[in-house]
Amino acid sequence: MRLDKYLADMGIGTRSEAKQHIRKNQVYVNGALPAGPQQQVKPGKDEVVCQGKVINYTEYEYFMLNKPQGCVSAVTDREHQTVMDLITEKNRKDLFPVGRLDKDTEGLLLITNDGALSHNLLAPGKHVPKTYFAKVSGQVTAFDITEFARGIDIGEEKLTKPAKLEILSCKEMVTEIMLTITEGKFHQVKRMFEAVGKEVLFLKRLSMGGLRLDVSLAPGAYRRLTEEEINLLKNGSMAKEK
Ligand code: URA
Questions:
Q1: Which of 105, 106, 87 is nearest to 96 (CA)?
Q2: How many angstroms separate the CA atoms of 136 and 105, rounded?
Q3: Catalytic residue positions, numbered
Q4: Which run of H or of E encompasses 104?
């Protein structure tokens, strides 16, 4: 890999800023000044130092964000804060959110630059389960549980795939539920409840494939995934392939 790309990938400015660092003799490779920005370096083998700091190369980064309400699941947005604005300690500049949560939905959002993993988690044929906690207006009934298990007409060509609905509590005409779906249609949870005459008042995603939201993360907080979580996500999502 070219030295200027190595540095740019690791967030040391743009490619031309990386070149400037190299030209100003601020970069060393294995203790020696490089021939130029085109010098080839081997990630993980060569030691690259920029302005006195060792720059380790990371090919992929994985973050778990507890998405707060009010920000959008996009890389950039002219009007609103994005989920990417919340990830302040990152090396890579090519990170993106895996799928979308609505602006008013909270909870688990995976942020990575691993395109293959993202595809495996989002591809409709993989049926990766996603579990949500919701507060729903009115009384969710045993009949709704049966209907959700059977499939709901949300105005798409086909009924929704069987979903597992659990009633947690019902107080003052607000029902707390858990719902596991294996699809990711636009506004799917809200549309499923709308189809049975109810409104989702609060929605939070708790898990996706083998990955569970860390309960210690307050809305807006994030952390890197552990190796174990990355493997769980990779194996879990791959295993569902038909
Ligand atoms: N279903 C919804 O309706 N909204 C979300 O954000 C996620 C699932």
A1: 87
A2: 13
A3: 102
A4: none
105 ligand 1 Cβ < 6 A: yes
Nearest to 178 by CA among 145, 139, 218: 145
- State in Å: Cα 178 to ligand 1 middle: 13
For the stretch 98-114, pLDDT in tens is 999 999 999 999 999 99
Task: Check: CB of residue 23 under 8 Å from CB of residue 7.
Answer: no
pLDDT band (50, 70, 90) for residue 239? very low
pLDDT tens digits for 136-161? 999 999 999 999 999 999 999 999 99
Nearest to 206 by CA among 178, 242, 167, 169: 178
Answer whether 77 contacts ligand 1 (Cβ < 6 A).
no
**154: Cβ below 6 Å to ligand 1?**
no
Burial of 41: CB neighbours in 10 Å, binned 0-12, 13-18, 19+: buried
Ligand 1 neighbour 188 (Cβ under 6 A): yes
Query: How many Å lie between the centroid of ligand 1 and the Cα of residue 204?
Result: 8
Question: What is the rounded distance in angstroms from the CA atom of residue 220 to the CA atom of residue 20?
Answer: 35
Gap between the Cα atoms of 165 and 175, Å rounded: 12
Q: Which atom of ligand 1 lies closest to the CA of 191?
A: 3
Backbone angles phi, psi at 195, to 5 degrees: -65, -20
Query: Within 10 A of 39 (CB to CB), how many other CB atoms are there?
Result: 18
